[in-house]
Amino acid sequence: NAGVTQTPKFQVLKTGQSMTLQCAQDMNHEYMSWYRQDPGMGLRLIHYSVGAGITDQGEVPNGYNVSRSTTEDFPLRLLSAAPSQTSVYFCASSLIPGSAYQETQYFGPGTRLLVL
Amino acid sequence: AQTVTQSQPEMSVQEAETVTLSCTYDTSESDYYLFWYKQPPSRQMILVIRQEAYKQQNATENRFSVNFQKAAKSFSLKISDSQLGDAAMYFCAYGRAGTASKLTFGTGTRLQVTL
Question: A43, A37 in Cβ contact below 8 A?
Answer without folding.
Answer: yes
